Amino acid sequence: MAPAKKGILERLDAGEVVIGDGGFVFALEKRGYVKAGPWTPEATVEHPEAVRQLHREFLRSGSNVMQTFTFYASDDKLENRGSKLSFTGAQINEAACDLAREVANEGDALVAGGVCQTPSYLSCKSEAEVKAILNKQLDVFVKKDVDFLIAEYFEHVEEAVWAVEVLKETGKPVAACLCIGPDGDMHGVSPGECAVRLVKAGAQIVGINCHFDPMTCVKAVKMMKEGVEKAGLKAHYMVQPLAFHTPDCTCQGFIDLPEFPFGLEPRILSRWDMHAYAREAYNTGIRFIGGCCGFEPYHIRAIAEELAPERGFLPEASEKHGNWGAGLEMHTKPWVRARARRDYWENLKPASGRPLCPSMSSPDAWGVTKGHSDLIQQTEATSKDQLKQLFDRSKSQ
Amino acid sequence: MAPAKKGILERLDAGEVVIGDGGFVFALEKRGYVKAGPWTPEATVEHPEAVRQLHREFLRSGSNVMQTFTFYASDDKLENRGSKLSFTGAQINEAACDLAREVANEGDALVAGGVCQTPSYLSCKSEAEVKAILNKQLDVFVKKDVDFLIAEYFEHVEEAVWAVEVLKETGKPVAACLCIGPDGDMHGVSPGECAVRLVKAGAQIVGINCHFDPMTCVKAVKMMKEGVEKAGLKAHYMVQPLAFHTPDCTCQGFIDLPEFPFGLEPRILSRWDMHAYAREAYNTGIRFIGGCCGFEPYHIRAIAEELAPERGFLPEASEKHGNWGAGLEMHTKPWVRARARRDYWENLKPASGRPLCPSMSSPDAWGVTKGHSDLIQQTEATSKDQLKQLFDRSKSQ
Amino acid sequence: MAPAKKGILERLDAGEVVIGDGGFVFALEKRGYVKAGPWTPEATVEHPEAVRQLHREFLRSGSNVMQTFTFYASDDKLENRGSKLSFTGAQINEAACDLAREVANEGDALVAGGVCQTPSYLSCKSEAEVKAILNKQLDVFVKKDVDFLIAEYFEHVEEAVWAVEVLKETGKPVAACLCIGPDGDMHGVSPGECAVRLVKAGAQIVGINCHFDPMTCVKAVKMMKEGVEKAGLKAHYMVQPLAFHTPDCTCQGFIDLPEFPFGLEPRILSRWDMHAYAREAYNTGIRFIGGCCGFEPYHIRAIAEELAPERGFLPEASEKHGNWGAGLEMHTKPWVRARARRDYWENLKPASGRPLCPSMSSPDAWGVTKGHSDLIQQTEATSKDQLKQLFDRSKSQ
Amino acid sequence: MAPAKKGILERLDAGEVVIGDGGFVFALEKRGYVKAGPWTPEATVEHPEAVRQLHREFLRSGSNVMQTFTFYASDDKLENRGSKLSFTGAQINEAACDLAREVANEGDALVAGGVCQTPSYLSCKSEAEVKAILNKQLDVFVKKDVDFLIAEYFEHVEEAVWAVEVLKETGKPVAACLCIGPDGDMHGVSPGECAVRLVKAGAQIVGINCHFDPMTCVKAVKMMKEGVEKAGLKAHYMVQPLAFHTPDCTCQGFIDLPEFPFGLEPRILSRWDMHAYAREAYNTGIRFIGGCCGFEPYHIRAIAEELAPERGFLPEASEKHGNWGAGLEMHTKPWVRARARRDYWENLKPASGRPLCPSMSSPDAWGVTKGHSDLIQQTEATSKDQLKQLFDRSKSQ
């Protein structure tokens, strides 16, 4: 029998680097298993082999955490999908747990059950209602005995605190991530203050996921860390950013970019961008380092390769990757072999091949958030009339 | 028992659109199963589940051809890999055939056995030696009874003609693709003349794959078609381009770009670029339309969606994709719902988020090709001294 | 006899818009009369016709202020020039006054005597020494009876305050401009605090000139205005920014850009950028609106055209300019005539025609300022050894 | 008495480099003396001091040719101006000759009388009518005894040949320039064939001016030279390109760019671009090297500085310019002094400071030229109705 794995807090307390995985929603959308718009994870039931394969790729690339593919798998969100699903929320969540556990068992990874912001909150439902929704997912996580919990992708710290309060009741370690940048949450609460509230609510790990590029997220986590330390509190820190460059984003992140979600390709980070990110996150004192939307397995591998000196080992997938381009030593063409060196890739400013495109965009910034009637969620699909109003409004901005 | 599938020539003769798959080498490199540099396909034996999954994703996205993952699987290339493999070329090729067949059987797809240019040719070996190498792969394809054969990724029409001559002996339909652009092959033979030679050698389908972006490849195939027609010959046409924008490439294509192969992210085509490509290819009279390096399943799906009116059906994976962004009608944010329309995505000029990067690069252009001593391939890895010479030469360009 | 002109304070007190001129140093460098590096104004003596012509072009374009071309005409700077001049500082300053007065008399313009930061201050000379240097220029301005005085292009508010103190002794109206952005002066004093100190020292007009693009300068003047109002003080405001886009600048402005001073062309503002600037400055409550380095006469004309509704008249040079492109109605080609409309030019995103260039740069940021030995000025030209040290240091940044 | 100057053909026959001047229309538009749209040169009468000053700046920068500012000064064009002028064509042309001669006498420069394409030709008038129009300008040039003649800015070689035939009758040396690129004239005649026709018509010097950037123009002149040599003829060659980067232009050049004429700033060439241009032109065998629209005096100076080794001297204006940035050795800031070297400026890729703008544009390409009704010129200004039609048509492109 294998020795029991070290838990998430044991690892972080020991100063180990814990590598997260990448975002399933975007990766599986490109593979044909998730629908952009609703973004719901019914693939866990419909196409388990595709979900399992992606877990395996992340594990092989160095991930220590198999996050259950339960994003937007709350019942209120599944209902808001606009088209009927043949599966209950519980079925989807259970299948996600089984897949994560199956692959986690193949290596040194833990299973994290994940919850995220709810349509109920955006629609101004009460604290009790929101907590009830979250509890339904949690029942599955407890039943399936995940190793720890992650509350992530919250735009409002108020809802994230509610989530932490619910998750804490399980007795499992709790990590909490907001999807905010240095400007703070959608109600204007600063990252430092957000972190303090999450820690006070009981989260042992706090950080940022999604919505901004790696360096921006690291900067925001740094502000969280400073806030927590200034308040005399203690916490571990995590970061799971986008794999897209977002220098032009304002407070709501990449959602506001005109390229979201079907024109983000030119913004995708290279593996070398990931080296720089991993180093910066490490130097900032963050030890739980992973990814979100846009991350492919090779991005996670780049994190693991950058931090191999600290960790003492390379991930399995590095058998198929020469350090800093060394594999090119075996390329057919001599001028490509000449690129088999670190300084080449570190200094490269990659061209877009798109001379008719700009390098930055003006984000949409409608400035509406929870409490605004535009954000009340509805079960039925947007009607033609509603869409026309949106188009017209969009053009006049 | 299922009715026998229509063969490749039957389909093309009937004017049907045949959708190809995407490039396995790049897709599996990102997933951690192929090493950039050698680019060899031993994953068919080492990690069959990963190869099978990718086949399935392409099938689901609309591909009618499962190309065996046998790129660079000739014995001379496998030996040039610079590190010992535990598998014989025959083992790798056989496993590739089995995987392709298994998935092809799950849908309306044919199996195509693929061969490509050999290190032997670049190293100036004789016609007999090159043909002997190709014959070894062919033995497997015959044994496994693939549906047709593709000779692809040839930079020199001379070698491609040799390949067609070898493949023809099997009696199976033969497609032949060069990896050239409008400027012609590495010895300066024009696309039109190349096509004529390939057709005269016996290829029933001729075209272009890899090395250039879709519009450039379509342009080159158009030149092939004009050459063939002018010569009073007949053929079918195919195109399987890169999913990278390459407006700045010279004759050797993306290999010469400073971003090759680890900094190409900003050049990745969007699904909307693929719509435009599929339409242009169709209008040019090309009926076998697929992809090569950089293509992910959603790129193939975009081809299938663009040509759905002509074909009369959508691919399976479109259950997870609203036409022209329609899925966004169910997005949480109203300003994202406003993007659920064709004219929005068709007119978008996506930003790179990289203000410090240019939009085009100056390609390396060492101007060496078959016959030049720099291109003689060696079995051992490049030595430190050899690398240093390459670096110095590279800097002085 | 013509009626006496209204003074600068009379105009501003009456709420009139006063339009400044553009920077002579850059404009005359392009015309061949000023040397980049030393940037000294001996052209007033050597080539008075060239200086006079530029004054006339600005007058004709709408300028109400003819600023004497006395930038860097302090004796300590002229000595630091590294090559002997045949003229004394007094000669250069006197000629400048005569030229400005001659052209001012041709229209509705005032003469402003200008002083700027001194090498003595950067070299850590005493307050008495710096004031003595400034007094020498002032003697000329008093003798030539200029209409008012401008202390401009100060990086440190400390030296600017000294300058204001000296200028105030003449009894003439005093304007004071720092060349700083929203981050404040080189010692970290905020724009608001800088403005308060200048007003307390006696400046009736305060603002920003040079170093940053128009919108950034307006933003910094806004911060000055808020600082002054919060302190319960009163002042008039002016802004004379660069005609270069500088979104990538840090605290020391365009000096730090790799393009400074010989590669700034792609950053030059269009006339339409100037319309937006003039409107923003006006809306911010700034009434003395002009330009600095990079401004050509047509840029000043654009300010005058944008504010024509407020001022009630167009500048003389508008006889050669159709409003918002209206002159194109007479173009030979019909598709150019189709551009004769405001919305066309207002929405145009002009391309650089430079696909190999980025859109932003990483500024040099050596972080040295007054007090640092690197900034001690020397009379002799930089030696080869000194230059080599600088090159090496530059490469390692 | 000064020795008689060498004529243009003497100089070119002797292999000397002859440096042209820059375009007056654009330079004086920025200074407020020419109206964009009609582009006519009445400033020679209205504001002779401004025209004289620009001549002087070019002379001082190294120009050996003072081209009379008579662009579009044919009577048919002046009538088409859409607003009455108080001057006759003869007055404007005579004043232009006097100004050019006055400044030419101040240095080693010749006076060239210039004619260009006529509205009459575009409006399909007969050869006799077009020649009559050109003869009226020519009468002035003969009366004022200019040193040689330049027929320039012709889009159709047919009209240029007519012009050469008319000019030849004066007995003065004749230069002829088309404003075309490598794709040939508006009727599709190749540069080589165009050159042959011009030489056969009697032009001793042939070349290209305007419409394209320097490298493109040099390429087209090279094609002209090859055509002339292949035909067994002899000629001298000249080039006077734009000072704007135009990599995205099609056959009609920068007129078709969306930025023409009021948004071209980001495309302006730097002095270093001019060094490269001058060298390339020289190496191509062109000896009459100048500029057109966009050239400022410092651009001409850069040509003269690049070719100083061949010519043996620097222009007068180089007293105010250190070679390859050497003047920066005297800059205040040490990091700017570090830029005082050739390799710095030669390798700089200057940023645009415009992250929201693309690097290239899609040119308008209405594809209409002489013979198309859209190009019939009219005397009155475009009517509102006509403009509306143009706008609508423009939007639908």
Automatic annotation (TrEMBL), chains A, B, C, D:
Record carries keyword Cell cycle: no
Keyword vocabulary terms for this entry: Metal-binding, Methyltransferase, Transferase, Zinc
Chain spans, region Disordered: 378-397
Domain called Hcy-binding: residue spans: 6-307
GO biological process terms held by the UniProt record: L-methionine salvage; methylation
Pfam families in the cross-refs: S-methyl_trans
Subunit field text: Homotetramer.
Function: Involved in the regulation of homocysteine metabolism.
Protein known as: Hcy-binding domain-containing protein
